[in-house]
Amino acid sequence: MTTSNTPPQEPLSPDELIAAVNSADDSKVAELEARLAEMSDAYLRAKAEVENIRRRADDDMSKARKFAVESFAESMLPVMDSMEAAIALPDAKVETVLEGVHATKRQLAAALERNKVIELNPPAGTKFDPHQHQAISVVPAEQEPNTVVMVLQKGYSIADRTLRPALVTVTAPK
């Protein structure tokens, strides 16, 4: 048994006891109400912030969809200018027109390359890939089965996604 060095307290009267409990409850209630108000304010601010972020994200997505091809279109403008320049000279010599066509093709290839459009032109002997190639015909040949013999039309891809498969002739299985 332990003894305390503090003198014993006199018992509280019932009225004093009720007043002490009520004052403790009132201060606790006031503290909880203040905390509730603080948390409600924080919740409303967080909710408003989330709504603002969602609205900004929606606006950004809308603008991205609307202007997604802007860079590509900008790359195509010099190609269009070259085509219009060629048309503007109806009496030009065939050699001059051909030279202009080659220059326009180089501009177009550069624009496609800048925009990550990659040419699919598999060399003969390449293993047939149905994700990048479309077999137009199957022919007997002296190379491995299911390999490309000849490309009939180049294909193109963008960001590892095939825009148009290369049209190819493949070797027949043995």
TrEMBL record:
Domain of life per record: Bacteria
Location of this chain's protein in the cell: Cytoplasm
Xref: HAMAP family: GrpE (MF_01151)
Function: Participates actively in the response to hyperosmotic and heat shock by preventing the aggregation of stress-denatured proteins, in association with DnaK and GrpE. It is the nucleotide exchange factor for DnaK and may function as a thermosensor. Unfolded proteins bind initially to DnaJ; upon interaction with the DnaJ-bound protein, DnaK hydrolyzes its bound ATP, resulting in the formation of a stable complex. GrpE releases ADP from DnaK; ATP binding to DnaK triggers the release of the substrate protein, thus completing the reaction cycle.
Coiled-coil ranges (or none): 29-56
Alphabetical list of InterPro entries matching this protein: GrpE (IPR000740), GrpE_CC (IPR013805), GrpE_head (IPR009012)
Gene3D superfamilies membership: 3.90.20.20, Head domain of nucleotide exchange factor GrpE
Assembly, per entry: Homodimer.
Name under which the protein is recorded: Protein GrpE
Record keywords: Chaperone, Coiled coil, Cytoplasm, Stress response
Pfam families reported for this sequence: GrpE
Organism of origin: Roseateles oligotrophus
Family: Belongs to the GrpE family.
